[in-house]
Structures
1.
Amino acid sequence: MMQTLKKIVRGISFALEGLVFAFKNDQHFRINSFLSLTGTFLSLALLEGCLSLVLAFINYSILVAELFNTAIERAVDTATLEFHPLAKAAKDVSSAAVLTTGIFALLADLIYLLPALLSAIL
């Protein structure tokens, strides 16, 4: 039981190290984290029921996509120092995942969160 608990704690420690690394070393991660977490918290604070959870999840998914993007970019950078079209494609595709997630979240926020925010402040 203690061995299992130690493995879990060690795994969480590695995950937190990855989060800190991404935050310290990737400006886009910091920007997207701010936007993602702001949308997540506003969704939970201003909306009700399932809609608040769905919109919070959509906004939070930007953060997750950006973590994957950061991991892929660092792995590609480690794999080759020379330009390679497939390396570029991997980085571009992972970046596109963040972009498309962000666009979807923005549209959802404009449709559902913006009216609730305006109602709360006006």
2.
Amino acid sequence: MLGLGWGAVATAARDGVDLHFALESARKRYLGTGVYQMSDRERQVVRLMAEGATSEEIADRLYLSVHTVKNHRKNILRKTGCRNSGQLVSRCIAAKIL
């Protein structure tokens, strides 16, 4: 169950937290082997990577420097524990993030 334990579910229910919101938040943070959080910009970069865009193309589309895009890519791989872009995109698709 997306890495959200029963204790967290019980706490959310007890505290009156919208359970759907709690589960959706957990789904957004979960990626295959662990919990992570990506910024909105990082998610944009992943979507463009999944479309096959190069760092230069991503930089042009998001009005960023190529260096910034490369830093985003490096940080995304580090956060998710993926070794390469293909593995990252595959896990994002499996986790229904893309």
3.
Amino acid sequence: MPAFFNRKITTVINDTENNDREETKVGKKGFPGMGGMPNMNNMMKQAQKMQKQMAEMQEQLEQQEFEASAGGGVITVKVNGKKEIIDIQIKPEAVDPDDVEMLQDLIMAVVNEAMRIADETVSREMGKLTGGMNLPGF
């Protein structure tokens, strides 16, 4: 527990007869004057535990593979949780030298779909840990 949570707080109070007296308070439940704020040490422990769980989850998700296909399965793309393309499969029947634009469109569509699947899965899994809080970077 950080030292400032257990320190003794002494305040000099002037009473109506101009006699000084001391009032002593010991902060055991957070900052003095914060109306019973929950124990900050416990909150910090919980935050650290959540941070560790999120890091573990993120590492698992980065290793996971996501796949999408287009054109009836003639093009298949795999990406990982880091949004890196790790495999592209193109069947010979997808290649038409007279229609290269169609192949380009199919590749773009399937890559975007694989990335979308990865994003949705990562967001859903991280949301389970954060309770729906939208934390930047996760």
